[in-house]
Design brief:
This protein is mainly α and 73 residues long. It contains five helices and no strands.
């Protein structure tokens, strides 16, 4: 049995929390294999583009200044 076949047979036996970690690992492996920039890497992570778009729609007035998070910055 090849590694690909083994992974396919095992994937449905893993809990969701583990699958999230597997997805992150796959994304990292893809990045390590030659993504040219951070945008390509980030959009390769399932759901990341949607999270970034949602964050960009948040009102800026509700934000916290950096000095409020890290006073020594």
């Amino acid at each position: 049995m090849s590694a690909r076949e083994y992974i396919r047979t095992q994937i449905d036996t893993l809990p969701d929390v583990t699958l999230e970690r597997v997805a992150e690992f796959i994304a990292f492996q893809k990045f390590s294999s030659g993504y040219d920039n951070e945008t390509d890497y980030l959009t390769s992570i399932p759901g990341m583009a949607e999270k970034i778009e949602a964050a960009s729609r948040e009102p800026h007035s509700g934000g916290v200044p950096v000095s409020g998070l890290w006073p020594d910055v």
